Amino acid sequence: MSPDSPTLCFIGAGNMAGALIGGLIREGHPPDRILASDPDPEKRERLQAQHGIRTEADNRQAAQQADIVVLAVKPQVMKTVCASLLPLPEQPLFISIAAGLREADIERWLGGDRALVRCMPNTPALLGLGASGLHANRQVSAVQKEQAERILQAVGIVEWVDEEAQLDAVTAVSGSGPAYFFLFIEALQNAGETIGLEPDTAARLARQTALGAARMALDHDDVAELRRQVTSPGGTTEQAIRSFFEAGLPQTVEQAVRAARDRAAELADELGQ
Predict the structure, then answer these.
(1) What is the mean pLDDT of the chain?
(2) What is the mean pLDDT of residues 147-160?
(3) CATH number for the domain formed by residue range(s) 8-170
(4) CA of 173: how far to CAs of 81, 160, 259, 260, in Å?
(5) Sign of torsion, CA 99 119 130 66?
(6) Which helix (H) or strand (E) holds 84?
(7) Strand order in the sheet with 130-136
(8) Rounded to two decimals, what is the model's pTM?
(9) Domain limits of the chain?
(10) Per residue in 79-116, is it b (16+ CB within 10 Å) or e — as a string?
């Protein structure tokens, strides 16, 4: 962040807020320009002790001090939280990291006509390895868009989407995606045990292999080509890959991602009512 870093207010002091605050401070954002509001005194005390930021118990009082307000609360309480911020004398940028809430609903709860960036992060952001999809409404300026990008880049990579509906696809790919890989690691561990490995050995091999494969994929432009390079004709890997294709693995993954995307849209309808 630049020396003229904006004042940030996090409404909600949970794990994701803590991850973002920690990442921002590591990137050089001054702690005295970050504050957090939460009704839980233990959460406030923890953030203050860990990061040296200011905290407040009152949402509106905290938001009034900020250039950017990050809404880091559960979707089920977002409407109530937005109401607690009103009326706001200024026009800050709002960033929502609550899953499944559409911009139109959040804007309405904030009194309308608000600059709002909606973000879909994922849990690896807690390790600084997140993948976040962002969409900005029409009220967001170019400067505010850059500010939102810097905030989320503090915990990983950022991808902007042109249409808000595409965030449902982001949810299906990267938002829910960590669970897909956990499932595959779990299945690989179990398979290793079934064919004779000790449970601890199978677990360590499967997890380290996943880590190494992900690192290689990040360093290579074409994962399909990378797969072909490590699949020797007539070898063991080719036999396993052939079995995956015969079982319809690509089609199963597509079906699962579509199901997650459709459910994301359904939840947005339900939560917005």
Answers:
(1) 94
(2) 97
(3) 3.40.50.720
(4) 28, 14, 11, 8
(5) negative
(6) helix 78-85
(7) 54-56, 34-37, 8-11, 68-71, 93-96, 115-120, 130-136, 156-160
(8) 0.91
(9) 8-170, 177-266
(10) bebbeebeebeeebbbbbbbbbbbbebbbebbeeebbb
How far lies 52's CA from each of 18, 23, 26, in Å? Answer: 12, 13, 13
In tens, the pLDDT along 158-178 reads 999 999 999 999 999 999 999
Contact 6/35 with Cβ under 8 angstroms?
A: no
Partners of residue 76 on adjacent β-strands: none
Residue 213 CA to residue 97 CA, distance in Å, equals 29
User: What percent of the chain is helix, strand and coil (3-state, nearest 5)?
Assistant: 55, 15, 30
**β 115-120/130-136 pair status:** antiparallel
pLDDT band at 272 (very low <50, low <70, confident <90, very high): confident
- pLDDT tens digits for range 18-38: 999 999 999 999 999 999 999
Distance between CA atoms of residues 191 and 205, nearest Å: 12
Question: Does the pLDDT of residue 2 top 60, yes or no?
Answer: no
Tokens for 18, please give them.
Answer: 């803590």
Q: How far is the C-alpha of 110 from the C-alpha of 59, rounded, in Å?
A: 13
Q: Which helix (H) or strand (E) holds 22?
A: helix 15-26
State residue 255's pLDDT score: 98
3-state secondary structure of 85: helix
Which overall architecture, per CATH, does domain 177-266 show?
Orthogonal Bundle (1.10)
Q: What would the two tokens of residue 253 be? A: 């993954």
Helix axis angle, 236-246 to 249-272, nearest 10°: 50
The pair of structure tokens assigned to 252 is 């199963």
Averaged pLDDT for residues 93-109? 94
